[in-house]
């Protein structure tokens, strides 16, 4: 049995201009363009190996060690497109193995707990598409592949690039012009860091696809968001990124998160993703920026209560003086900083800031937060030497 | 010393189409028309006595037993208008005492704890204006007086009428056409009841005047609300009230509350009035309506976390089966219902509904709620036989 394999990683991305609303649910075509920052893969990534062989009997996925069905429509749409492209190659070169006709085995692993409530579907579909494209030796570039990943999960298209990424909504009915492009590679603005505050919440959220459909159908304010507010902000946020203008980027990021959650609240029945802990984080961020009289940190919230804070490396000491003081009880600091550095944050707070603070610091904030993930802007999908599939059996190692 | 006195009560009103935004902060002219229900005064009212005498030395207010300044601009604007109207009478009839030149003593008491966090300024300014108008024997009708009360506190103008009240925003720069009118007297739709869930919250809200200004200045979605959404809803909600169409009235009430809080969230920095307990109440209301497959109850939230639920008397048993089951621990039931009636609600829940419930009932909801106030639609300001001022001294009794 000949088993062909290929492996790749793909990153998580967190939108700063939110994707919320589908104009075509079948093709995952959005009602507006969006922008995101790709996060470093040391902390958050999916590793996916794809294998194919004439002897495989059915498409099969092993996700984090568990066998899962590959028959869901979204995955099949992606695989069908990839097989179509492979088929074009095979028809041009008869010597190629007829992989487009064979079944696939996919093995995928995240390096972060799914319990963290971080949207892993973007990294998952990006890795799936890239791994299979590599297996098939497809010539398509990342933007072209992003159209396929988009069909799996809208925001997955943005995980095909590193750095700062735009998903252009496009206009075509078939979605051919709805794809991701890179606004700026991470090397051009590498100082961007992110702190993810994982917020405890017992209540299950409305799934985002269902939530989007409800907002599109019922929110009176939503139309204004997609027709006037986001198109203007899309241009301005790209400019802010190109100019590496953090305060402007940060302000638009916060406003867009609020605008998105406002349209959720304006849906009927209303959808709530942010909770009282999220609100405390929002208030804290505004207080810190007011304290320094400068926008040094931005918050953004996806379809859940977790806060993602963006800040520049040069302001880390200022930010962490507050953040570590308030959240030293939660896990996630120690893999990144040693005791001395952590004590430094506390000392900065106690010696330089404490006496000047005029805002309310909630000493119980940490109770609503289960962990902090400290990361930064990072690259797109990477070739992986590690293969999760046993070449001799075609099964997970 | 001759002391002239007059006394009145005035009710609280709770908007179902929200007033949020001033186009003229000085005159309290709103950016949109609004609608409210006036609540019964057995439960919530201000009683105000006004006195004047040539011998009084300064305008003085005693509010709930405490002497307070009457020099704030809003109150002085009201008093100046009232004195102007009195002055017109005096200039037409020289035999009248020259009250317009004399100082005023005002004594005012609420029959509900201000700690409840219920906006008492509407009832307070309405009672102030009506008491002084009565003292001055002014011929102006309630709509004309509502223009004056509006200058004290915007929503006060709606407390000049009972039943269902519209505040027409008007267009004039001087605010002469911005006043309250009655949509329907309470006798025409007396079945409307209200349950106020007083929600505990440690955090002080952004004061509403400050919040409004911030929303007007910074929310991108706000303009859409006031130019397209509210004008349409104003016409439709008046129609729903005139037709006594509870489901339609209820749906618009809920949507408008959500729309208002969405624009607060879209402000920068965002304003939060509803908290996690408020959200649980919102979810519960939608679940109850879904359970009965009929809109039997509506929620609305002002600039704070307290929920006001509107429902029709005929549906009380259905609603209270859930509400008393979940909130029997909070105070406020027993003055209105005896043990047998309260047990009846529990029995209805246990015997008729419990086994059919498919939604999540949060057994800890009561922990976020400090009391329930059970009331209904009620009349406008009432003459009061009780006078809070000692006729011989001109001071509080």
Automatic annotation (TrEMBL), chains A, B:
UniProt record, GO biological process: isopentenyl diphosphate biosynthetic process, mevalonate pathway; sterol biosynthetic process
GO terms for MF: ATP binding; diphosphomevalonate decarboxylase activity
EC number: 4.1.1.33
InterPro entries from the UniProt entry: GHMP_kinase_C_sf, Mev_decarb, Mev_diP_decarb, MVD-like_N, Mvd1_C, Ribosomal_Su5_D2-typ_SF, Ribsml_uS5_D2-typ_fold_subgr
The reaction(s) this protein catalyses: (R)-5-diphosphomevalonate + ATP = isopentenyl diphosphate + ADP + phosphate + CO2
Domain Diphosphomevalonate decarboxylase-like N-terminal span(s) in chain numbering: 10-180
Keyword terms of this UniProt record: ATP-binding, Lipid biosynthesis, Lipid metabolism, Lyase, Nucleotide-binding, Steroid biosynthesis, Steroid metabolism, Sterol biosynthesis, Sterol metabolism
Mvd1 C-terminal domain sequence ranges: 195-382
Pathway: Isoprenoid biosynthesis; isopentenyl diphosphate biosynthesis via mevalonate pathway; isopentenyl diphosphate from (R)-mevalonate: step 3/3
Keyword ATP-binding: yes
Annotated NCBIfam families: mevDPdecarb
Protein name: Diphosphomevalonate decarboxylase
Organism for this UniProt entry: Maudiozyma saulgeensis
């Amino acid at each position: 049995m000949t088993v062909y394999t290929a492996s790749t990683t793909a990153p998580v991305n967190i939108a700063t201009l939110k994707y919320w609303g589908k104009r075509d649910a079948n093709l995952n075509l959005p009602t507006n363009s969006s922008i995101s920052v790709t996060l470093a893969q040391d902390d958050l990534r999916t590793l996916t190996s794809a294998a194919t062989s004439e002897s495989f009997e059915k498409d099969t996925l092993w996700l984090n060690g568990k066998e899962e069905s590959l028959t869901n429509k979204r995955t099949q749409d992606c695989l069908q497109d990839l097989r179509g492209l492979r088929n074009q190659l095979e028809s041009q070169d008869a010597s190629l193995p007829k992989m487009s006709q064979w079944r696939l085995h996919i093995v995928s692993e995240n390096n972060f707990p799914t319990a963290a409530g971080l949207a892993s579907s973007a990294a998952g579909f990006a890795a799936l598409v890239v791994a299979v494209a590599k297996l098939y030796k497809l010539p398509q570039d990342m933007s072209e592949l992003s159209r396929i990943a988009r069909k799996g999960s809208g925001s997955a298209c943005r995980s095909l690039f590193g750095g700062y990424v735009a998903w252009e909504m496009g206009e075509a009915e078939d979605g051919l012009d709805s794809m991701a492009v890179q606004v700026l590679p991470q090397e051009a603005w590498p100082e961007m860091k992110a702190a993810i505050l994982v917020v405890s919440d017992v209540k299950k959220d409305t799934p985002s696809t269902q939530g989007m459909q409800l907002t599109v159908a019922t929110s009176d304010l939503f139309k204004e968001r997609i027709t006037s507010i986001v198109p203007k902000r899309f241009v301005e946020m790209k400019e802010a990124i190109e100019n590496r203008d953090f305060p402007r980027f940060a302000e638009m990021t916060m406003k867009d998160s609020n605008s998105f959650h406002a349209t959720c609240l304006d849906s009927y029945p209303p959808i709530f993703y942010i909770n009282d802990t999220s609100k405390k984080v929002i208030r804290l961020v505004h207080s810190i920026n007011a304290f320094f009289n400068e926008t040094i940190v931005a918050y953004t919230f996806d379809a859940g209560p977790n806060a993602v804070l963006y800040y520049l490396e040069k302001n880390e000491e200022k930010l962490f003086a507050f953040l570590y003081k308030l959240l030293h009880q939660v896990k996630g600091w120690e893999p990144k900083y040693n005791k001395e550095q952590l004590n430094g944050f506390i000392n900065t707070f106690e010696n330089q800031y404490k006496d000047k603070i005029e805002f309310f610091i909630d000493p119980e904030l940490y109770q609503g937060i289960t962990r902090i993930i400290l990361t930064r802007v990072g690259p797109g999908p990477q070739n992986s030497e590690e293969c999760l599939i046993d070449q001799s059996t075609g099964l997970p190692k």
